[in-house]
Amino acid sequence: MKRTSTSPKAKDKLLRLGAVVFWLLLWQIGSMLLNQEILLVSPVSACATLIRMMGESAFYQAVFGSFGRILAGFVLSTLLGILLAALSRAFSVVRILLRPLLSTIKATPVASIVILALIWIRSTNLSIFISFLMVLPIAYENVLEGFDSADPKLLEMARVFRIPFGGRVRAIYAPAAFPMLLTAVRLSLGMCWKAGIAAEVIAQPRNSIGSALQQAKLFFATPEMFAWTLAIILLSVALEKLVVLLITALQRRMEGTPCSH
Q: Major location, coarse class (predicted)?
């Protein structure tokens, strides 16, 4: 008889699934032992509440409202981070000027930024601004590190053969920067979602997950709070996978590598 061997990739997926099941079981046991739904609902109750909420139009209005604002902040900050990294690579004065500003952004608590920003920014746009600020330092620093890691021998060869700037970007800088950009995306998207939703909880814009969470808290609707939290996690994971897929496809296209199916 032939022995069937599990591939490392399949084994890794099974281990991840097992870890998720373990924590869900632990959550279920904790809920059963506590036996007070107002303090800790079971995963079954949270999923059932989420499914019920998905049958209501208000759920989709809140999801699309928050999703659009947070995604806008993420895209704007990523594009600006790439641009600033390119300028810092070309001009050392830009790198020097940006360092204290970005360090200040990273060190300032999100709550302080939200409260200060409410003075100048409408509550509807606050989550865009907060998401933007959370992602910008990560995108800038990672992409700049990628640019700095470009092979100096290849750059020297490009100068000797007078390869145009666009060709150098495509052949040298882009391959060096894309892996770091993917790292930045994976690091920043979860933080971006958490900060954006926290801003919505404070600012209370219409049609937002943050407002729905705050309403659930006011009425002690714990199942709804857990259901919204579960929705946030699922949306964050889905958005991360989508953005990583798009960046990988762009990388392959720029490098002239056909996408595998």
A: membrane
Average pLDDT of span 23-30: 91
- List, for residues 78-125, the tens digit of each pLDDT value: 999 999 998 998 899 999 999 999 999 888 888 888 888 888 888 888
Half-sphere exposure of 216 (CA within 13 A, CB side): 21
Two tokens at 184? Answer: 């930045």
Cα of 208 vs its chain's centroid, Å? 18
Distance CA 164, CA 99 (A): 30
Cα dist. 52→57, 137, 224 in Å? 11, 39, 10
Task: Dump pLDDT digits (tens) for 167-221.
Answer: 777 777 778 888 888 888 888 888 888 889 988 998 888 889 999 999 998 888 8
pLDDT tens-digit readout, 33-50: 888 887 889 899 999 999
What pTM did the predictor assign? 0.83
Q: Please measure the distance between the N-terminal and C-terminal CA atoms of the chain and give it in whole angstroms.
A: 33
